[in-house]
Amino acid sequence: MILTRYSETPILEPNPANAWEALNVFNCAVVHTDGLFHMAYRAQGANRVSSIGYAVSSDGVRFNRLQQPILVPQDEWETCGVEDPRITYLAEEQRYIMAYTAYSTRGITPFFAESQNLITWKRISPMVVGEDDKDHVLFPRKKQGRYLALHRPAPNIGLAFSPDLKEWQDFQILIAPRPGCWDCKRVGAGGPPLETEQGWLCIYHGYDEKNVYRLGSFLLDLEDPTKVIARANGFLIEPQEPWEVSGEVPNVIFSTGNVVLNGKVYVYYGGADRAIGLATCSLDELLDFILHG
Known about the structure:
- By secondary structure, this protein is mainly beta.
- The protein has one domain: Tachylectin-2, Chain A (5 Propeller), CATH 2.115.10.20.
- The chain has 2 helices and 21 strands.
- The longest helix has 10 residues, at about 285-290.
- The model has no long low-confidence stretch (mean pLDDT about 100).
């Protein structure tokens, strides 16, 4: 494993004082800006309907959180919850885009929302409707005037393009499950792709026939993200700690947030859909693992 846990214990756990996050907190987006780590995390109360909470930290480890969620279910798309936020900052447009999953009795729907301050969010539109598709995340810059997003047309990781974040086109498959490997059943994108000199660094999750979720990595060409440069054979981290092995859903490490700061990669993840952990490694080490490991 390349990633090293910051601690054997979670960095964020359920808060019994708030009904909306008393049962589980997990699967978080993290953005670093103006010297602070901003986290948007999925939370559940006793009714298991998901909302999205907010927390902030100066060191990326000790977070202070708001007592009320920043995104809650509001229409027929979201009656059972808003889930798994992934946040991308679009520097040219000076706005944040959150990709999240709307869940209702009609199924799952990948949605986008926008914000100027990471607290107040306005819905934009769904990415697709009526399909088994989620785990979507936006690239931080456009290509030839179009937005790019990874998404999960089950069981694969796909790429799609859009002129306006509403109409999506040129859907194609990038990464598929590998028979006999740790990611043989299904794969899905993690946090926003990270721009490096070697290419777009992408962290993803995959699971096997025993439903054990681990994290993997691959590189896409900077100028042509439809080209996969390399994909690591091994995984970055797997469930080991008791709170990663046992929880709401056992044997799960699932990431929707990653940050690079001073040559260090911070990967935030949900453990067993119960709590949030942090694992890190050097950027150079991770790139070498993908290209040569």
